[in-house]
Amino acid sequence: MVFSLLTKIFGSSNDRAIKKIQPIVETINSLEPDFQQLEDLELTKKTAEFQQRHQGGESLDTLLPEAFALVREASWRKLNMRHFDVQLIGGIALHQGIIAEMKTGEGKTLMSTLPAYLNALSGKGVHVVTVNDYLAKRDAEWMAQIYNFLGLEVGVVVHDMDDQERKKAYNADITYGTNNEFGFDYLRDNMKFDRESLAQRELNFAIVDEVDSILIDEARTPLIISGPAEKSTHLYQQSNTIIPAFKKEEDYTIDEEAKSVMLTEAGIAKGEKLLGVDNIYDPANIEILHHLNQALKAHTLFKRDVDYIVKNDEVVIVDEFTGRLMAGRRYSEGLHQALEAKEKVKIANENQTLASITFQNYFRMYDKLSGMTGTAETEAAEFKKIYDLDVLVIPTHRPMIRKDFPDLIYKTQKEKYNAAIQEIITLHRKGQPVLVGTISIDVSEDLSKKLKKMGVKHTVLNAKHHQAEAEIVANAGQKGAVTISTNMAGRGTDIVLGEGVKELGGLHILGTSRHESRRIDNQLRGRSGRQGDEGSSRFYLSLEDDLLRIFGGDRITAIMDRLGIDEGEPIEHKLISRAIENAQSKVEGHNFEIRKQLIEYDDVMNQQREVIYRQRRQALKEGDLKSEIIEMIEEKAMDIVHRFQDDKLPLEEWDWEGISDAVKRQFDFTIDVETLKTETDNKENASQHIADHAMALYAAKEALIGEEDTRQLERYIMLQTVDTLWKEHLLNMDHLKEGIGLRSYAQQNPLIIYKKEGYEMFQGLIDRIREETLAILFRIQIAPSAEAPVMKKPQNDNLILSGSDNSLPRQPVKRSSAKIGRNDPCHCGSGKKYKKCCGA
After folding, report:
1. Among 224, 341, 505, 722, fewest CB within 10 Å belongs to which?
2. Do 288 and 412 belong to one domain?
3. How much is the pTM?
């Protein structure tokens, strides 16, 4: 009450933020007449002028009013579209690194041209991130008319491009692409052996469209580049065959709120009997237990035509947030194979991760990040906590007049769908277009069958029927249109009303269920009432819906029973709608905690990833690693002496045999122990003597091979060693993470233990990289060309890119086929041939 009164007096924080921006908008408007008087060529020349002023020390903030006024005039001349004041407000917010919440149809795409142009003046590049390839191409081509007119280059990154095309696109002033493409290109660049093939520049400024979808909904889905691991699929089939024998409650329990399933004591005993093992929790049987758990998940928690579909004898994931197929993406940890076994399709081999990153950590690497969407305010706390991003709700250009009716709640799903169908028929006869939102493919198809029986002409838009998506969306606002859709119609679609429809009440949104997230419901509602159009919305629910049943059904059921609601009669009350929103808020809070925990764990991995990738970049860009190699030689010499000497013992009693063996293993030469003893009086002298001898041998080898070829060889071997050991480290970290939860039983904080042990493992990784790099370099010898076959050039391997939507790139990643083992030939790329002897 008091808070509401204070808000009325002083305005909300959002109102105050907009009021602070308003003077800048007025300055831009005051400049408009000056820019209107300029000829086209004079407008174009302004870009070079702004760039020179910025290079001379003038800030982008100072240039903003003129730059925005210039873009507005260019847009009017090239597109016949003039930025509204609310778009100027949104553009300023984006430039300031703020998320702009702007309602559907208010012109987010045009708004983004303002900060994109301004920040491109720095010459460091701007990335505009969209949710699919179609939107990336469309927006790039559409807005390029403005940018090109003003003398800027525009690039677009889509999945069917080679390295050179990608590099050209990233070198443009402004680059459009999907979140997947930007993330995968970052990972690809950190797997390359040639600096000329690096595609991306430094990550400067990103404007993320549908920012809540990418940074929140998809935050738990990492981008993964993986290669096939040689594992048998027998256990998946064996585990799958025994699952039908398990009974709910008796053998396993399901926690629907946490979306988890757990074996009971009886279930464990049954599993041991059917699989023929004495103790399934014995460490030797841990893999069998893992397969059993995944098979149980596949059968109990994942539903066909809801979570996935079977298409062309493949299990294809359906994105729960967009309703789209996620071709090319696979569930991790063997779950996808368990689903393949369940559906009796070919079971693919498991994959080994070669590189991965979450969207959370990828986008946090940009120097400046901003975003835009129609729905962000409900997640403002998470945006601030995870990304340090504020949310600004931008006013609409025209007042919103859509009528959002309270939910109608029925006791059963049968009553709910019957009532919804009657509503559709009534509106269809009236001629008012209806967009029917469903939460899954099977519900959309079941509803379609019922409407066909009733003789109602309609179209269906879901992941199975998406070929005519553009046409279906274009016609959804026409008189008498009935469109049944999954969440596919929720984002990136702008439904324009046909002639005479406004008079009928505009587009009516009929939701058949509430989603776990209020934002998804708001996205669906947002298809109606664009730019001040007429429109309406209502959701039909039942007490049997998952959301109500799991998170609030008892309370609502009690109210309905108390009111004596008859069959087929709904309850419509704002208190009930509020109770449902509270249930959604509870789920959102739960999901936020999961994402927060995920990033806490992933931050450990991210710090390690940044160190490794920074070393790779340094090796690629600098080319000359000689000083690093010398430093590594000196460090390893010191390590060897330190390991086998004892300050408490006289020098003669040190473990000289151990020192000699270690030097032989590391540097491939035999040290003269007696000489070393006589010339040494402390451990520093001893390690320096070993290092000097090693560097003398290395210098002789360099003289034999040639300085330029040695530098190439050092770079190649270090990169190859880093990649091989990093791949093993990723697997070890995954295993550590899987087992870390058990530490909580010992009253230990799993995250602290994960950080501590992960750090120790990483230190071990760094040591092994140095040891193996030196061991290989010191064993390389010149060999006759007949004995040392030329190593193959980098070729395409069948690697798998796993991401988040159906615009995934599925082309192979270019990787070297070289594997430098103990006796393998290696080739530095110079045309000469080398061979590595086996050493000690």
Report:
1. 505
2. no
3. 0.75
